[in-house]
Amino acid sequence: MRPYQVYINQEALVSAPRSGLPRKAVMDFIRSLAADPHSRGDFAERDEVGRTVHVKIVGRFAVSFWADHAVAEVKVTHIKPADK
Question: How many whole angstroms separate alpha carbon 16 and alpha carbon 18?
Fold first, then answer.
């Protein structure tokens, strides 16, 4: 399998943890998506175009992502507090 690239939506970074262990945990998870692009979240949702988007709870944050296998990319669309 060829290596995947991971892309993070700029808007997702606004609500991401800025430092410390919470940021490390979120970023470690995001990096892991390159090695395992078939990862599943804790649950899945449909986006506005009907695509399945996985949501993984990492500490107190929810990370939304989907894999575009045709171009070997994982897109991180949202990072937000898990309670919202």
Answer: 6
Domains annotated on the chain, with CATH: 5-81 (3.30.2310.20)
Q: And the tokens for 77? A: 């669309």
Strands 5-8 and 43-46: unpaired
pLDDT per residue, tens digit, the chain (84 aa), is 678 999 999 999 999 999 999 999 999 999 999 999 999 999 999 999 999 999 999 999 999 999 999 999 999 999 999 985
Instruction: Give the DSSP H or E segment for 73.
Output: strand 73-81
